[in-house]
Amino acid sequence: MSTARTLDGSSAGGQFLRTALGLSVVTGDPITVENVRGDRPDPGLGHQHLAVLETMTDVCDADTSGDELGSETVEFDPGRSSDGGSLPIDSGESHLEGGHYRVDIGTAGSVTLLFDALLPLAAVLESPLSVTATGGTDVKWSPPIEYLRSVKLPLLRRFGLVAACEVDRRGFYPAGGGRARLSLGPSRLEPLDLRERGQFEGIRLYSTEAAALADSDVASRQIDGALDRLSSAGVGADIDPGGDPIDPLERRETTAASDSPGSAIVIRIDHGTGRAGVSALGERGTPAERIGARAASDAVTFVDEAAPIDRHLADQLMMVLALAGGAIRIPTITDHVAGSRELLEAFDVPVAIERDGTGPRIAVRTRE
């Protein structure tokens, strides 16, 4: 391997590794990540982290070491010259061939987090890339697959990302077994401009139940619980004072095949320029209405804030800022955002943070 950037993951989790791999691929810089997931009770590579590493290795034909379960040091060389690979990137810097790949994460490891790690590759693709993954589509500690499909991807397509996600089968904890496909096309990303949210436009609700729960109408009851909570909080009353406080722009209930019983709800909040999402997973012994109300309470909190994106997107968009430049206003500086900033600066990406009364603003300048 050529000389690598050495990165310390002792105070970070899996997102640090995923972002570091993406940065390595788009810049061409080899990396050594030490103390992988060092702040977790079970440090080192788990199934889903190993799946990301192996997929990146296959797609890039990279040289890798430390690619085994439990490994706390990973070396990754994407195998190309890093000259001209500074960030944000210019159009015309494509260097990565696409193709078709299949990945079995094992157990209920998150398909969503794998796909999230792959999205930055669109900026340097020469030809389309598709990855079909088997694992967990709706599991703890990661966004449900519908969040990716209906919140994040539509937002990023506005800024030039060519991407789609299709779900063949849902995978809930503990069996997993879900199957989904991410399709990426060569993309010319435009600088992000998410400093203001604009006027409230409405909400969209996406509720999913495993087929084993269909007789209990779990998907419908989750939405009913969410709407009751939103209505009691007066969400939407300002745009229709004389009518029903909340009239969804979209209501979608899905009954899906799955190896495990489970459910999930995602609420998308639309503003003129803003886009946000909140979610909740079903829990054994907890009424479906309460699961919906839990997600709705997070939606109410977001509506009362000023940022155009939710706190989970804030962290996830840090990588896109590195690729395309631009500025975003976020609800707060979370540990994930702070860690992502440090990682970007380790790749010589200057990240500016400004604070005012409406929340922090994060900016990365485009090339002159």
Rg for CA atoms: 20 Å
Could you state the oligomeric state of the chains shown?
Answer: single chain
Q: Tell me the distance between the termini.
A: 32 Å
The secondary structure category is alpha/beta
CATH architecture of the largest domain: 2-Layer Sandwich
Main sheet record? 4 strands, mixed
| Tally of discrete structural domains | 4
CATH class (first level) name of the largest domain: Alpha Beta
Average the pLDDT over all residues and give the rounded result. 92
Q: Order of helices and strands, N to C?
A: EHEHEEEHEHEEEEHEEEHHEHEE
Query: In CATH, what is the homologous superfamily of the largest domain?
Result: RNA 3'-terminal phosphate cyclase, insert domain
Strand content: 25-35%
CATH topology heading of the largest domain = Dihydrodipicolinate Reductase, domain 2
**Can you tell me the overall shape?**
globular
Strand order of the largest sheet: 1-2-4-3
- Low-pLDDT stretches are 239-243
EC number: 6.5.1.4
Keywords: ATP-binding, Cytoplasm, Ligase, Nucleotide-binding
GO molecular function, one term: RNA-3'-phosphate cyclase activity
Binding site for ATP: 116, 312-316
